[in-house]
Amino acid sequence: KNEVEQSPQNLTAQEGEFITINCSYSVGISALHWLQQHPGGGIVSLFMLSSGKKKHGRLIATINIQEKHSSLHITASHPRDSAVYICAVKRGTDKLIFGTGTRLQVFP
Amino acid sequence: EPEVTQTPSHQVTQMGQEVILRCVPISNHLYFYWYRQILGQKVEFLVSFYNNEISEKSEIFDDQFSVERPDGSNFTLKIRSTKLEDSAMYFCASERDRTDTQYFGPGTRLTVL
What we know:
The complex is a heterodimer of chains A (108) and B (113). Chain A is mostly beta strands.
């Protein structure tokens, strides 16, 4: 079983829709990261969370440590949001453990 | 804004050849990482590096792999004798401290023929 599970694996949306991507993990963590990977392959860090909620523009990330669950929300989605969104956790050591990613496509 | 850079962007090599992938982390960062992503799969940890030595390595990081920070700015990953299954995108990452965000380079796509 993967230590980090994401759902859904694939997601399509119409421009303007509210999007939610979920991440569950089975281990104790020191922090959770949400990352974005574009078709060219580059990885960009969106958020790092250890508790509560963070907001950046149209993106909101929340984490519930007790339930070992995090969500990434995108409000007013746009075609340029199309990418793979990856949840990764840090277990108190240096490395990140990655989920398999959620492929999002937003259509005009 | 400071960024992590990697060279080359794409490397093609013959099986059995040595390759060196190069990374320049952000200048005031202290922790350095290599990850890889085989096409269609998730990103996997290879090795972490701090204070001029390996902090942790995965099962993937066997004797064919080595890392070095030769001059205080570059951070390199060497694969001594490449195999077909080493074909992947290799990402370098760095962070200022363990509570910081990890910043990723654009990746090097390694193709082993």
